[in-house]
Amino acid sequence: MQYLISVIHDQATLATPEEDAAIDVFNDRLQTEGHWVFAGGLASPETATVIDNRGGSEMVTDGPFLESKEYLAGFWIIEAADLDVALRLAAEGSRACNRKVEVRPFQ
Amino acid sequence: MNTIREAITRAHREEWARIVASLTRRFGDLDIAEEAAAEAFATAVQRWPTDGVPPNPGAWLTTTANRQAIDRIRRESKRDDKHRKAQVFHDDPPESLGAIDDDRLRLVFTCCHPALAMETRVALTLRMVAGLTMPEIARAFLVAESAMGQRITRAKAKIKAARIPYRVPSAEDLPARVSGVLAVLYLVFNEGYLATGPDTDPVRHELTGEAIRLTRLIRVLLPDDGEVAGLLALMLLIEARRPARVSPGGELVALGEQDRGAWNAELIAEGHRLVRERLAAGVAPGRYQILAAINAVHTSARDMRDTDWSQVLALYDQLVRLDPSPIVALNRAIAVAELDGPEVALAAVDRLEHRLAAYHAYHATRADLLRRLGRGQESRAAYDRAIDLAGNTAETAYLTRRRDQLLP
């Protein structure tokens, strides 16, 4: 079972060197214990571009699709047996990156 | 006819949780388990009056429910092959857990999972473990039946999609998860004990009764947990006073004015036995054990004056260290009033104003202390505020009478 762990942040700051180091340690652990699928940090929301091609006529808009104080700063995709395992890993990830996270299962 | 109805009621009380729990393990789906269990009981209602009560009602119901569940899965797999794949449960059977290996315990932990909202945990526990019907739960919490149904449906969908596990948590998680379960049970009890709402009975026995029954079950499943014993003792000692707590006119009767002869001696004896058992265990008590001990002191006294208030205060001091909440501090102040007088207590209560200004008991306590100090006008204002904020009909009636008895 795979879960998306979204990192939620509400300030323009990037991860500090200490936070980066803690994230590396956590990532290593995910890999050795077989939970790792993929992970990444995202550039700031201002760098986002929205494209809507539902009607066949491409609409390009500058900026994120959702204007809000909180935004997605990065994510992990993990493999976990159940929600208890995923929540435990998410708690460690939140601690490592020093940000709030959301856990959501893949369909 | 009556004996048949009694047999069904008894089987429902004794077997419901076991049947839902074992079906959930077998089929890996709370929804299927709940529906099949309900259908099995409906079949019993139809068949037992003519066929007679089977020699082993639990086994009969389990077999019938299993058959219902298999029928449903077959129906759905014919209709939709994808569906069938979803029904084949999460791979491996739950690991054996030795002493606490009981499906019902797994069920309780799933229903009280921290990933569900508190009100959802309460509703789900009452449905799946206690076997209350949707209308009963909706009525108990004063919400529309459709809203309650949706809440439970959403919860079942989340349990399935996010794979909230059906097992006893790991040793590492267990203490926090047990205390989460106890919080659910205590909330059910309190809602029954101090029911809110202008048109409801001041005490809802069905909720206090269910909370006690569920706590007894948890105690059977986790006999060595001190807080489980503590919560059970606490509920029993509060429930024991119920007959004296509301007057025939529907007014709350304060502890000092209750007819102690009307208290339930059997429940008190059982509560005291549990408290003594925990004292003898020699393990530092948690919150529920301390609250139970405080209630044991109250229920040991012949009257208000005979109460060992220094013991009560010592227990509150212990509780404050574990739980420094303003509500604990408020209750502690009530004991202080008995030992050191209302003036000292009032000073302590006034210090809580910024945190408890919206809590009716804060104003009710102040009103009583001010009354005892002869400060009638201030007392009246505090009673007014308490009456505005109180949600329980018996409490409002009591506060109104006390206010109206103040000398002008």
Automatic annotation (TrEMBL), chain A:
InterPro entries: Dimeric_a/b-barrel, YCII. Residues 1-98 form the YCII-related domain. It comes from the Bacteria. Belongs to the YciI family. This is YCII-related domain-containing protein.
TrEMBL record, chain B:
Residues 109-159 form the RNA polymerase sigma factor 70 region 4 type domain. Residues 19-78 form the RNA polymerase sigma-70 region domain. Transmembrane segments: none annotated. GO terms for molecular function: DNA binding; sigma factor activity. GO terms for biological process: DNA-templated transcription initiation. It comes from the Bacteria. Gene3D superfamilies: 1.10.1740.10, Tetratricopeptide repeat domain (1.25.40.10), Winged helix-like DNA-binding domain superfamily/Winged helix DNA-binding domain (1.10.10.10). Residues 177-277 form the DUF6596 domain. Keywords: Sigma factor, Transcription, Transcription regulation. Belongs to the sigma-70 factor family. ECF subfamily. This is RNA polymerase sigma-70 factor (ECF subfamily). It comes from Streptosporangium saharense.
